[in-house]
Specification:
The complex is a heterodimer of chains A (469) and B (204). With 469 residues, chain A is α/β, with parallel strands linked by helices. Chain A has two domains: 285 residues, Aconitase, domain 3, CATH 3.30.499.10; 182 residues, Aconitase, domain 3 (2-Layer Sandwich), CATH 3.30.499. In chain A, the strands form five sheets. Chain A has a five-stranded parallel sheet with strand order 5-4-3-6-7, sandwiched between helices. Chain A has a five-stranded parallel sheet with strand order 17-16-15-18-19, covered by helices on one side. A four-stranded parallel sheet of chain A has the order 11-10-9-12. The termini of chain A are far apart. In chain B, helix 4 links the parallel strand 2 and strand 3. In chain B, 38% of the residues lie in helices and 16% in strands. Chain B has 204 residues and is an alpha/beta fold. The N and C termini of chain B lie far apart (42 Å). Chain B folds into two domains: 164 residues, Alpha-Beta Barrel (Aconitase, domain 4), CATH 3.20.19; 35 residues, no CATH class. The chains are: A alpha/beta (469), B alpha/beta (204).
């Protein structure tokens, strides 16, 4: 019977079936972070259980670290205990830490692929819901809670019931200044925040194939925002080129063997999926969220919908979102004044994201009164961006240029907006109060965020660029 | 893990879909390593909305949360389950759960119940009607909900999850029974796909 790639990865990692019927799936790479791992270290210590494979486990510092230049453990006072506990727990368990001043420090989902640590067809787990970001290199990743994290530390497997499979085919071609972020937001708008619940998603089709690896990561990053259990773009030549020579990627003869194997990693012709969706990306315009969940999305030229057109609980949710966001039905979002712009997070803070934003910003100034920040996804991204002069572009325009971390995505490090502010953000969640109490978040691509910072209003980047030529 | 056999308590109607874990346990309430999980639960909503269901006196001692679709969407933070337990909420009856949240419930002896759509609507109507005046009992052995306003309602929890909850089984312990199979998998893979079994920095 033809099999999906998900079936193949699942079966290749299936170790055993447990007495309760759950299957044990081997986790090839486990990356932790300081917000949740300390609790798991403590639980294991109480149970006198060792970490099975510290050599396949890595610790990132990302959620609570300050972004201010010259930062220390205590620059964000509430982060210090987490950072120290992470360092100590990792040391005791012989797990390598990408520490605050390590050149490889950064957001776990950015660092793991950047170092070539996650590989096509490999399984990956992180105590964070955006784990599937690494699906961009064809790896299958699961976000887990703290207790599951302890389970993986002790056993190197996850005990799971096999999720269902879903195929999302992306047809057509993306226009100029339209990115995988816009595609992902459109998909979520189409199928809703639980449209992929219980499913592992394979992204296919010419538009997915045409995406550079970093854009595929953005696409897979947002998989959880439609409820997906995991999601990936199967690897191809672009993936292999991207991975070659990265510090943890296989070398020499092992690379050749790996490559031969990776070339077999595809769904069979005729493989059946439990659910399918096709989206034509031709003609898609930049997308932006108007509401308080990532399915409340408009094209940049669109107008805020009228809740009276919806029914029941959806209508109530829309009304509540409009109130929170300070919007009225029929309003255009483009042109609304913004107070804050954030370019960063595991969604959109890799080097090409920053290049794309810098191309919009170059030679211009952030509008008066707008607080604009760029926080690179990793210290490596930061170094490379600085080598390319991007930090100067942003700083000259009036952006804050920070040290790497999760920053304003969830505000775990204290970076956040002020009540009532309208914030245009390249992150993944526009939930109420996430970026600060009463902050009104609009999710967009880096290009749209950059254009909005310059305009001081929500802007269509295509118009800004045309005007400058 | 604390076993779950049966739980009796006031059922609290939170009749919305897609309630996310940012709302259940705000990150601002997680700034300490061991926050007060009882206070953390819906901390911001409770502070900002005087008429929020958990602020209403008849729901001051909740036992069961009753809610809509996709409960627990968003972040994987387990504090969103620990906050429930700290408030003696040991059952959540939802129309559906977000995947990671449901797993986190099972890991902590919190029973996630999904009723058939017609039963869910009937149960919600009874919960709203009784308005905290009398408790419901959720029994996992018989897989039934009993309480005011009508006959018992049956539900179905997959056998694997049911046994684990009823017996309070140690999840890691269950898996460690397969240590030999894990070691054999590692050995096989080290030979067939060595790049998976080693993660070393080639610069060092």
């Amino acid at each position: 019977m033809p099999r999906t790639l998900f079936d193949k990865i699942w079966e290749a990692h299936r170790v055993a079936q447990r007495a309760d019927g759950r299957e044990l799936i081997y986790i090839d790479r486990h990356v932790l972070h300081e917000l949740h791992a300390p609790h798991a270290f403590e639980a294991l210590e109480q149970q006198h259980r060792p970490v099975r494979r510290p050599d396949l486990t890595f610790s990132a510092l990302d959620h609570t670290v300050a972004t201010k230049p010259g930062r220390t453990d205590s620059t964000n006072p509430s982060g210090e205990a987490f950072i120290k506990a992470m360092r100590e727990g990792s040391r005791k368990n012989k797990i390598h830490v990408f520490d605050l001043h390590d050149p490889d420090q950064g957001i776990s989902h950015v660092v793991a692929p950047e170092l070539g640590m996650v590989l096509p067809g490999a399984t990956h787990a992180v105590p964070d819901s955006h784990a599937s970001t690494v699906g961009g290199v064809g790896a299958m990743a699961f976000g887990v809670g703290t207790t599951e994290l302890a389970h993986i530390l002790a056993t190197q497997v996850m005990a799971m019931k096999k999720p269902k499979s879903m195929l999302i085919r992306l047809d057509g071609r993306l226009g100029r200044h339209v990115t995988s972020k816009d595609v992902a937001l459109r998909i979520i708008a189409e199928i809703g925040v639980s449209g992929a619940r219980g499913h592992v998603v394979e992204y296919a089709g010419p538009a997915a194939r045409a995406m550079p690896i970093e854009q595929r990561m953005t696409l897979c990053n947002l998989n959880i925002e439609m409820g997906g259990r995991s999601g990936f773009v199967p690897s191809d030549d672009a993936t292999f080129q991207w991975l070659a020579g990265r510090p943890y990627a296989p070398k020499g003869a092992t690379w050749d063997r790996a490559l031969a194997h990776w070339r077999t990693l595809a769904s069979d012709d005729g493989a059946a999926f439990d659910k399918t969706l096709a989206l034509d990306c031709t003609g898609l315009e930049p997308q932006i969220t108007w509401g308080t969940d990532p399915s409340q999305v408009l094209g940049i030229s669109g107008r805020v919908p009228d809740p009276s057109s919806a029914d029941g609980s959806r209508r109530a949710a829309m009304e509540s979102a409009l109130t929170y966001m300070g919007l009225k039905p029929g309003m255009a979002l483009a042109g609304l004044p913004v107070n804050r712009v954030f370019i960063g997070s595991c969604t959109n803070a890799r080097l090409p994201d920053l290049h794309a934003a810098a191309d919009v910003v170059r030679g211009r100034k952030v509008a008066q009164g707008v607080v604009a920040m760029v926080v690179p996804g990793s210290s490596t991204v930061k170094r490379e961006a600085e080598a390319a002069g991007l930090d100067r572009v942003f700083r000259d325009a009036g952006f804050f240029w920070g040290e790497s971390g999760c920053s304003m995505c969830a505000g775990g490090n204290g970076d956040r907006g002020e009540p009532g502010e309208r914030c245009v953000s390249t992150t993944n969640r526009n939930f109420e109060n996430r970026q600060g109490p009463k902050v009104r978040t609009h999710l967009v691509s880096p290009e749209t965020a950059a254009a909005s910072a310059i305009a001081g209003r929500i802007a269509d980047v295509r118009q800004i660029q045309a005007g400058s030529a | 893990m604390q076993p779950f056999i049966s739980h009796t308590g006031i059922a609290v109607p939170l009749l919305r879909d897609d309630v996310n874990t940012d709302e259940v346990s705000p990150v601002q309430a997680m700034r300490e390593m061991k926050p007060d999980y009882q206070k953390l639960l819906f901390m911001r909503t409770r502070a900002e909305q005087p008429d929020f269901v958990l602020n209403q006196p008849q729901f001051a001692n909740p036992g069961i949360l009753v809610t809509g679709h996709n409960f627990g969407a968003g972040s994987s933070r387990e504090a969103a389950v620990w906050g429930m337990l700290a408030n003696n909420i040991r059952v959540i009856v939802a129309k559906s759960f977000a995947d990671i949240y449901r797993e986190n419930c099972l890991q902590n002896g919190l029973l996630p119940v999904v009723l058939a759509p017609a039963d869910a609507d009937a149960f919600i109507a009874r919960v709203v009607a009784v308005n905290g005046a009398a408790p419901f009992t959720v029994d996992l052995q018989s897989q039934r909900i009993s309480g005011p306003g009508g006959p018992d309602i049956s539900f179905d929890v997959p056998a694997a999850d049911r046994i684990r909850l009823l017996e309070g089984l140690d999840d890691i312990g269950l898996t460690l029974k397969h240590t030999d199979a894990i070691a054999a998998w590692e050995q096989r893979t080290a030979a067939s796909q060595p790049w998976l079994q080693q993660a070393t920095d080639n610069r060092r």
